[in-house]
Amino acid sequence: MREDLFREDPRYKQANKEALLAIGLFALNILWWFAFAYGLGSGPPQEYSYVMGFPAWFFWSVIGGYVVFSFLTWIMVKFFYKDMPLDAATDYHWKPQDRGGKR
Amino acid sequence: MQWEILVVMVVYMAINLGIGLWGAKLNIAAKGGFMEEYFLGGRGMGGFVLAMTLTTTYISAGSFIAGPGVAYSQGLGWVLLAMTQLPVGYLVLGVLGKRFAIVGRKIQAVTVIDFLKHRYESKAVIVLSVMGVIGFFLAAIAVQFIGGARLFQSMTGYSYETALFIFAGVVVFYVTFGGFRGVVLTDTAQGIVMFAGTLVLLVGVFTYGGGVGAVMGKLAAVNPDLITPFGLNHFITVPWIASFWILVGFGVIGLPQVAVRGMGYKDTRAMHTAIVIGTVFTGFLMLGMHLIGSIGKAIDPAIKIGDTVIPELTKLTLNPWLAGLFLTAPLAAIMSTVSSQLLVLSSTIIKDLYVSYVNPNPEEAFIRKVSMIITLITGILVFAISFRPPDFLVWLNLFALAGMESVFLWPILLGLYWKGANDHGALASMISGCAAYLYCHYFWTRPFGTHTIILPLLIGLVVFVAVSKLTPPPRTEIIRKFWG
Fold first, then answer.
1. Distance from CA of A24 to the nearest CA of B (A)
2. Are the CB atoms for B411 and B432 separated by under 8 Å?
3. Total structural domains within chain B
4. For residue B201, is it within any domain?
5. Average pLDDT of every residue of chain B
6. Shortest CA distance from B215: residue in chain A
7. Which residue of chain B comes nearest to A28, CA vs CA?
8. pLDDT at position B443
9. Where are the domains of chain A?
10. Is B449 a residue whose pLDDT tops 50?
11. In chain B, what residues touch A37 (CB-CB under 8 Å)?
12. Residues of B in Cβ contact (< 8 Å) with A44
C-alpha cells in the first residue's frame, strides 16, 4: 500500500500550528528572561535601581516575566488555539473555522 | 511539637483518604473498559483538574523543600533559575498537544509505553522503556517517600519508621483503590493546598521582615551577592542556568507521568483551560516558594541545613494554625507527585508487561483484581526500599529526572511528529542518550559550561535522526494508523 493513498487527518494541520506556537512562546520567554536578568543585573549591586522594593532586574525578569507570559499564554490559547473533536474517527470534515469540541 | 500542627496534619491525611475512596466509587460507577478507567480515568478530565494534576505531578518536594533551601544560600539568582519552570504547563500540553490526545484515542493507548509500542512495534524499545520506567521510578518514588516521611517526622515528632508507615500508607491506599481518578482528584485538592500555603507563607515572611524594601536592604547587607542573578561567588554561570530551560522546561515533555496526562483530558476546551491555569499556577508556586527561601537570610541568617529552611521560616513567621496549614503544602506536593509515579509504575507492569506478554485477553473482573493487587504490591515494595534510606535525596531525584528525559523525550516527540522516525532510530537514541547521560554525570559534569542534561539530549536527537534515515522507514500501516 502506498503512503500517499490516504488523506492525513485534517485536524493535524491546526494541531501542528498550535505546537509551533507553544515553541515560539517558549523561545520568547527565554529571551525576555535573559534580556532583563542580565541586561539590568550584570552591574555591581551597589548601583542597582529598584522597582517596588525589588532590584530592577528581578522585578522585570522574574515578576514581570511571570505576569507577561501568563498573559501571553492566555492570548495564545484564546485567539490561536481552536476547539476540535478528539475522537479516533476521521470520516467527518472538520475545518479550523468550526467551533465546538463535541460532535 | 505543637499540637495545632498535628491536628491539621491528621485532618489533612483523612481528607486525602476520603477523596481517594470517592475516586474508587467513580471508577466502579464508570461504564468503559476497566483499564482505561483505572489508568486514565476514562479520558474524562476537565480543565481545572487537568491543570492541577499536571502541575502537581511535576512539582515535588524539590520546589517546596530542597529548592528554597538552596535559594536560602544563593539568593535571588536561584529564583531566576526556578522560573525556567514557568513553561511546563504550556509546553507539555501545547507541544504534545492535540495530536497526542487524538493518536492516543486512535490506538487506544493508556500508557506512554503503549504509545511507543504501537508506534515502533519493537520488542527492544518496549523492554528498554519498561526497564527505564521501573528503574528510574523506583528511585524517584523512594526518594519522595523518604522526603515525605522525614517531613512528616519533623512535624509530628513520630519516629522515621512510623512517619513513613503513615505517609506511604495513605498514598498507597488511595492510589490502589482510587486509580487514576483517585490520583487526579487528590492532586486537585493538594494543588489548592499548595497554592494557599504558598500565598500564606509569602505574605507572612514579607510582613515579618518589614516589607519588600526592608527585606532587600537586609539581604544586601548580609551579602550583596544575594541580590544579583549570579548567586554566591558567581556560582550560577549563564550557560549552566540557561540549560535549565531544557532540563526542567522543555525536557519535562519526556516524563511519562507528565506526558500521560496529555492523553487523558476530555475535550479541547479542557486542554485550553488547563494550559492557562497550569501556567499561572506553576509560575506562582515557583516564584513564591523560591522567593521565600531566597530572602530567608533577611529573616533568620543562622539556619544551617538547607532542607530545614522552609519549616524553620514557617514556625518563625506564622501562628501555629497557619503553620500547620502551610506545612501540609510540601506534604501535598510530595503526595501528588508520588501517587502519579506509583500509578505509572504499576500500569507499566500490568499493561505493558502482563497484558502484552503474559495474558493478552484477560477477563474484565480478573484484570480488575490483578491491577489493584499489583499496584498494592508495587507500593509496598517501594515502601520497603524507603525503610533504609540512602542519603543523596536531591541527587537521586535529579538523576531520575534527567535519566527519564534522556530515554523518553525523543521517542515520544519524534514518534508523534515525524513520519520517518523508526524503531532503530528510537532504540539507538534511547541507548546513546542514556549512556551519554551516565558518562557526563560521572566524568564531564558541565560540558562547555552547560548542565549535564544538554549534551546527552543533543546526542540522542542526532543519533535518532541519523539512524532513522539510514534504516528502512516504518511500515506504511503504522503511518496510516497514526496519521490517517
1. 10
2. no
3. 1
4. yes
5. 86
6. A53
7. B87
8. 81
9. 9-80
10. yes
11. 80, 229
12. 224
Cβ–Cβ gap B224/A73 under 8 Å: no
Range of B86's domain? 3-394
**CATH number of the domain encompassing residue B145:** 1.20.1730.10
Which of B78, B38, B21, B88 is closest to B58 using CA atoms?
A: B88
User: What confidence tens digit (pLDDT) does each residue in B25-63 have?
Assistant: 887 776 667 777 888 887 888 888 888 888 888 888 778
Sign of the C-alpha dihedral computed for residues B249, A70, B66 and A39 taken in this order = positive
Chain B residues touching A6 at Cβ < 8 A: 480, 483-484
Residue B346 Cα, gap to closest chain A Cα (Å): 26
Residue B258's alpha-carbon distances to A19, B374, B401, in angstroms, are 17, 21, 12
pLDDT digits (tens, 9 = 90+) for B100-112: 999 999 988 888 9
**In A, which residues are within 8 Å of B213 by CB distance?**
50, 53
Of A95, A94, A32, which is closest to residue A65 (Cα–Cα)?
A32
More confident residue, B144 or B426: B426
Q: Are B249 and A26 an interchain contact pair (Cβ–Cβ within 8 Å)? A: yes
- Is A15 in Cβ contact with B102 (below 8 Å)? yes
CA distance B190 to B144: 15
pLDDT along chain A (103 residues), means of 10: 68 92 95 94 88 93 96 94 84 55 40
Query: Which residue does chain A place closest to B225, by CA atoms?
Result: A45
Compute the nearest-CA separation of A97 from chain B (Å). 14
Phi, psi values for residue A9, rounded to 5°: -50, 120
With beta carbons less than 8 A apart as the criterion, state whether B83 and A69 touch.
Answer: no
Surface-to-core class of residue A98, CB atoms within 10 Å of its CB (0-12 exposed, 13-18 middle, 19+ buried) = middle
What is the nearest CA distance from B229 to chain A, expressed in angstroms? Answer: 6
Contact B268 A102 (CB under 8 A): no
Contacts of B423 by beta carbon, 8 Å cutoff, 6+ apart: B120, B121, B122, B124, B125, B474
Kindly give, in sequence order, each residue whose CB lies less than 8 Å from that of residue A75, ignoring residues fewer than 6 positions away.
none
User: Which chain A residues are closer than 8 Å to B272 by Cβ?
Assistant: 77-78, 81, 83
Closest partner residue to B212 (CB to CB) among A15, A21, A53 is A53
For A86, the closest of B98, B284, B484 (CB atoms) is B98
Tell me which residue of B395, B428, B396, B436 sits closest to B411, measured CA to CA: B428
Rounded Cα–Cα distance for residues B245 and B74 (Å): 19
- Are the C-beta atoms of residues B383 and B164 closer than 8 Å to each other? yes
Task: Quote the minimal CA–CA distance from B160 to chain A in Å.
Answer: 38
CB spacing of B83 vs A45 below 8 angstroms: no
Contact A50 B99 (CB under 8 A): no
| Backbone φ and ψ of B136, nearest 5° | -65, -35
B261 assigned to some structural domain? yes
Can you give B98-130 as a three-state secondary structure string?
HHHHHHHHHCCCCCHHHHHHHHHCCHHHHHHHH
Q: What is the complex's ipTM, to 2 decimals?
A: 0.87
Convert the pLDDT of each residue in B265-318 to its tens digit: 989 999 999 999 999 999 999 999 999 999 998 888 888 888 888 888 888 888
